[in-house]
# Entry
Amino acid sequence: MLRFILRRLLQMVLAFFGTTLIVYALMFAGQGDPIQALAGERPVTAAQRAYLTEKYHLDATGVGGFFYRYFDYLGGLVRGDLGQSLTGRQISDILAAAWPVTVKLAVIAMAVTVIFGVTSGVIAAIRRSGVFDHATLVLTLLVLGIPTIVLAPLAQYFLGVRWPVFPPTAGAQPSFYALLLPGIVLGSLSLATALRLTRTSVTENLRADYVRTARSKGLRRRRIVGVHVLRNSLIPVVTFLGVELGNLMGGAIITEGVFNVPGVGFNLFRGIRTEDGPLVVGIVSVLVVVYLLSNLVVDVLYAVLDPRIRYE
Amino acid sequence: MRVRRLAAWAALPLAVTLGLTACGSGGGGGSADDSDAAVRIEIAEPQHLVPTNTNETSGSQVLSALFSPLVDYDDANKPHEVAAEKVTTSDNKVWTIKLKPGYTFHNGEKVTADNYIDAWNYGAYAPNGQNSSYFFEKVAGYDDLQGESPKATTMSGLKKVDDLTFTVTLSQPYVDFKSMLGYTAFYPLPKAAFSAPGVLAEGYEQSPIGQGPFKMKGNWQHDAKVEVERYDAFPGQQPKVGGVEFRIYQQPTAAYADVLSDNLDVIKTIPTENLSTAATDLGDRFQQSPASSLQVLAFPTFQEEFSKPEVRKAISMAIDRDEITKSIFKDSQQPARSFVSPVVAGYRENTIGTAGAFDPVKAKAMYEAAGGPKKIELSYNGDGGHKDWIDATCNQLKANLGVDCVGTAEPKFADLLTKLKQKQPVGLFRMGWVMDYPSMENYLGPLYSTTGSSNYYGYSNPEFDKLLAEGARAATEDEAIKKYQAAEDLLAQDMPVIPLRYGQNNFGHSTKVKNVHVDLFDRVDLLKIERA
# Structure
C-alpha cells in the first residue's frame, strides 16, 4: 500500500507539471492585451504600459518568449512564490484568503450530498417502486435538469429575498448559516447524482447471493443493509464523490458569484475576465494538486471498502 | 478482521471534517445587525487605493471617503474650493493654490503644500507606473519625468511658497485647470506614505491615510470589504453617518438582492436585468441621476467608404435613438444629439441638428446620393452587454437604408482597439466616454484632436485643433466655452462619430438610509447620506 501511494505521488509530480504547462500555454495563447483589459475602455498611458510590460515580461512573445516566461514562473513556483496578480497583489495572499471560504462551502455541499443523497438513495432502493422512490426520481430529474445558473438566482430570490429564511448573500467572513443556502444549491446537483447511483447500486446488491444467505442465516435486516449491502454499494458512490469533491473545491464560479462568496471561483472568474494570466494559472495550479490528491484518497478508500482490491 | 474493522471508518472522514467545521463556525448564525451608524455601500474590488493610481469608480469611491478634494463641483458643475482656501491665476499658466488651515491627516500630521507636491511628483514619475499619471502632463516639467530613466524626479512646475501655499506652472496656459483639481489624482499624500523620498511605503495601499472626513477602520479586506469611520478632527463639513462599510461584490445582481432585503444600503448601478422591475421592487428608493458617460458609434474615417460626411450623417438619421433607449434600455439612458454631455458647462441641446432627427426617407435618399457602402458592419465588445442595441441598430439600418448590416462581436474592447490601431476594416464601432473632469474640453480634446489619446477614428481637422488650443488659452472660462462650442459645431459638420446616448446613474437604496445622491463620477455623496 505504501509503495502504491509513493508511486502515485511521483506520478502526481509529472501530472502537475504537465497540466501547468498546458494551462500556461492556453492562457498565453488566449491573451490579447492584458494591460488594456485591465484598464477597460480607458486609454493606457505609455508609462503604465512600459511599467507593466517590464514587470510581467509581457514583451516576451512567440515560442521562445513562452518558454522564458513559463520557466520564470516555474522557478518562482518551486521557491513557493506564486507571483503577483496584474493588480500587484501576492497570489498566495489571494489564495490564502479564498481557500478557507471555498473549503467551508465545499464541505457543506458535500455534507448535503452525503446525508441526503446517500440516505435517500438507500431508502429508495429498499422501497423500490414505492411512493418515495417515484417522488425522488421526479425530484432528482428536475434538479438535474435545471442548471445552476438558473437554480442559484431562483433559490436566492425565493429563500433570501421573498421569504427571508436565509441571508441572500454571504459576503465577507461568511458565517456557517450564510453559507448554508449556497452550499445546498451547490450540493443539490451532486446530491441528485449520488442518489441515483446509490439507489441503483443498492438495488443490485440486494439481489446478490450473499444477501440471501445472510437473510436465511437469520440476520437482522438492519445489519444486512447497514453493513453488508451498503459497504459493497459504496464503491461507485465514493468514486463519484471523490471527483465531485475536486469539482467543488474548484470553486463554483456561478454559485460563488450569485451569493457573493469570496472564494476561489470568485477570484478565478475575475482573473479570467481581466485576462490576469498569473492569477488564473496560480489558482489552476493549486486546483490541479487538489484534484490529484482527492483522486488518490479515493483510490486508497477502495482498498479499505473492498478488501479484495489490493495495491502493490 | 483488521481490514474489516478499518472499513467501518471508511465512510467517516467526511463526517469528521464536517463536525470540525461545524464546531469552527458554531454560533455564527443570523445576519449581522449591530446597530452602529455605518452605512453599507456596494463597490467592486478596487484595483488600487493610491490616489494617483486609481482611475476606476470603486477605488475612487473609497478614496472619496478618505480624502477631501481641493475643489468640488456645484450644481452647475463649476468648481468651488473645498480643501483649498483659494485657487487663483492671472494668466491661466501660473496657478496659486492656497490651502485651508487646520487640515490634518488621520495619523495627526498637518497637511502642508509639501504633501501635495510630493504626491503629484510621485504620480507623474513614469517608473512608478501610476494609472493616472497623464493628469499631470499639463504641468511644466512633466516630460522630464518620463521614459525609462527620467532626467528628474520632481516637476519643475511645482513650487512651494509657504507651508500652506504652492504654485503650479503649466507648460501651456489652460483655463480649466481648476476643474481638473477635483479629480482623485490630485489628493495629497502624508509623509507617512513614503518610506523614502519618492518611494511609496509598502502596505500604504492596504490602509491609506488621508485628510478626509473618514479614516480607515482596519485594513482593506480584499474581495470582502473596506471599512471607514468618521474622523472627528476633520475641519470641513462633517458627514451625517458614523462610518461606511464598502462591500465588495463580484456581480451586481447579488448586491441588488441584498438591497431588496435591507442587507445592503446602496447599490450604485442597478443591473440591466433588474431595471424593468426596479421601480416596483424599490418604489421611490429607485432613483436616477445624470452621469457623464456618452455612447457613440464611431466611423473609421480613414476608410474610403466612410470618408464622406454625407454618408455618416445619413446613417445617423436612419437610427431611431428614442426607440432604442426606450425599448432596449428601458429609459435607463437618454438619447444624445450632441458631442458633449449635459453635465458640463457649455452643453447645448441638439448640436448635430438635422442629422439627429430620425427621418428614414431623407436618410435613404442622402445615403444613395452619396454612394454609401451596400454592407455595413457594426463592431462591439462582446463582454459589455452591447449585443441588444447593436442588433436593434442594425435592424433599423437594414430597414431604413436598404443595406445589409451585421453586428460583429470582439471578445473585449482591447481586441477591438488592437484591430483599430492596425487599421483593419472593422466597420463602424461602438465607443463610450466617461469624463475625467467636468469640462467641455474633456469631451473634445482626447477624442477628436489629431493627437488625442482616444482618437481611434483617424479624424483630423486642423481648424478643430486650432479652436481647442485657443479655448485652452482663453482668458476666462466663458470665452473658452465659446471656442469649444465653435469646435463642436465643426464636429457636427464632419460627424466623425454618431452620438447615441447619455448615461444615467440608476441607483437604489434600502429602507435604512435616505438622502442618497450619486455624483457625476458614479460616487455616492458621503457627506449627504443619512440613516433613515
Residues 477-494 of chain B form the longest helix (18 residues). Chain B touches chain A through 66 residues (CB under 8 Å). The CA atoms of residues 448 and 455 of chain B lie 6 Å apart. Residues 1-35 of chain B have pLDDT under 50 and may be disordered.
